[in-house]
Amino acid sequence: MSYKSNSLKYLALQKFKKNFWGVFSFGFVVFVGIISVFAYVFAPDNSQYANQMHLSIHSKQPGFKVLMLIIPSQLKIEQSLVDKIFFGTKITDTETPISEYNVVERKLTYTEYASDGLKGVEKSVDLEVFPNQSVDGFIKERTFLFGTDKYGRDLLSRILVGARISFFIGFVAVFISLLLGILMGSIAGYFGGKIDAMIMWIINVTWSIPTLLLVIAITLALGKGFWQVFIAVGLTMWVEVARVVRGQVISVKEQQYVTAARALGFNDFRIITKHILPNIMAPVIVISAANFASAILIESGLSFLGIGAQPPMASWGAMIKDHYNYIILGKPYLAIIPGLCIMSLVMAFMLIGNALRDALDVKS
User: How far is CA 108 from the centre of its chain?
Assistant: First the structure.
């Protein structure tokens, strides 16, 4: 005889599974997470930050193909496999788009690619620079599925690598906001009195400052950079968590099981962590999903303003900033593609939040 659990966790999980858009969004977020972690494995351009520039093929349409000549470098850099997988390959070889080539008298003569019907510069290189004095394997046809940006970089690779910032800023920012929000909110709600008044004053002052303005101030104080943005966004999102936790703690701390815990002599720390917090996490989980989406939008806004992730680091917001003027220049996909990526990821987190809200609603 099989045993069917009737626990609240089991019932909430079953309700979540019945929500198609919630499950679909969760799968999409997992997919984006895998892409962001192993971006350099999937990216056609696996150089660090996907930053291989070819100005002669800038702003090309999706599906553009060109012959790419790779001239080996004498400089060799030792790099571990793990470093290549997670941080990209340090490229020392020279890549040059070409339109035609031929081998004559132990020399490779090639014509550099030039757009708009122009003829490129003819150059030559000794075959001695190639292993075994053969160009086999060093001239390949390269296809740019999403086209190239205004610097001639592979747009698909930049999108894949840029997913890492947008995805991980959600985790880091939400972690910081949960850490501070749960700590401050539980202390304020449980102890009350002057402690509650002081913490609420801090919350209200922080809340009154516009989020983007506060993030800009923190970013400028900590400096421009990758981790500074993560910390700045996290430090601005904790107040909402703290207010929710405080309200939940106030409503729960007078329950009978909390009174029983006090009668048994348990200390305040154990009562808060073991008895109160596990019973108020449902709204906190829902608000965390919404904070994921907010963190992604804030980071994109900061990168668009130029104070987020700094070049040559790939960021969806920075990609929109670099190409927004191309919307009226006949190549809107350069800004629309990263914009759609931001929109889809934010929407996925919002749909997950809605599904979690319905699943954790004990009244339904």
Answer: 43
